[in-house]
């Protein structure tokens, strides 16, 4: 019986100082976005910053609701807004940052499954890999394409 193994590459850094200027700036924008998250139920504020090929940075944060499923994650708020404002501009990278009760997480917080699916759609739409930057105070992880975060991905190729 054939067994397939899937390998993904995650590049890890111990400090933001090790990153290039572009990635540092994107993390900073995501950090600022956490300040205006609406997260009274979880007290977990997530910020996402999307860098477009034209140099624009679009940010978003999580928006919660008393009817829990009606809220939306930071990544999707940012990506949907980026795609609605600049429908023809590819996304180059996305930085994700989270704050728990006003303190930035020490380890990186990976995006939820639904956000991965939306990130994948954007990657497929523009046929360009999106760099995913996950920030933690003690560790930063960089994944060079969304398909690495979602192996056996479901796309419109199936129908
Ligand atoms: N959240 C995000 O914004 N992004 C993720 O990828 C994971 C979870 C938000 C949703 C909710 O407002 C809070 O974090 C707790 O789940």
Question: What is the element layout, followed by pairings?
Answer:
Elements: E1 11-13, H1 21-34, E2 44-52, E3 57-61, H2 74-85, E4 91-100, E5 103-104, H3 113-126, E6 131-135, E7 140-143
Parallel strand pairs: 4-6
Antiparallel strand pairs: 1-7, 2-3, 2-4, 4-5, 6-7
Helix pairs in contact: 2-3
Bound molecules: tetrahydrodeoxyuridine.
Could you name the CATH homologous superfamily?
Cytidine Deaminase, domain 2
Beta fraction of the residues?
Answer: 15-25%
Distance between the ends: 28 Å
CATH architecture: 3-Layer(aba) Sandwich
Overall number of domains = 1
Question: How do the SSEs run, as a string of H and E?
Answer: EHEEHEEHEE
Report the sheet with the most strands, covering strand number, pairing sense and barrel closure. 7 strands, mixed
Provide the CATH topology. Answer: Cytidine Deaminase, domain 2
What is the helical fraction, as a range of percent? Answer: 25-40%
Mean pLDDT: 97
- The CATH class name reads Alpha Beta
Describe the protein's architecture and organization.
The protein is 25% helix and 24% strand. With 159 residues, it is α+β, with helices and mostly antiparallel strands. It has one domain (11-154): Cytidine Deaminase, domain 2 (3-Layer(aba) Sandwich), CATH 3.40.140.10. A hairpin with a 4-residue loop joins β2 (44-52) and β3 (57-61). α2 runs parallel beside α3 (113-126). The longest helix is centred in the N-terminal third of the chain and has 14 residues, at 21-34. The relative contact order is 0.19. Tetrahydrodeoxyuridine is lined by residues 39, 42, 44, 46, 62, 64, 71, 73-75, 111-112, 115.
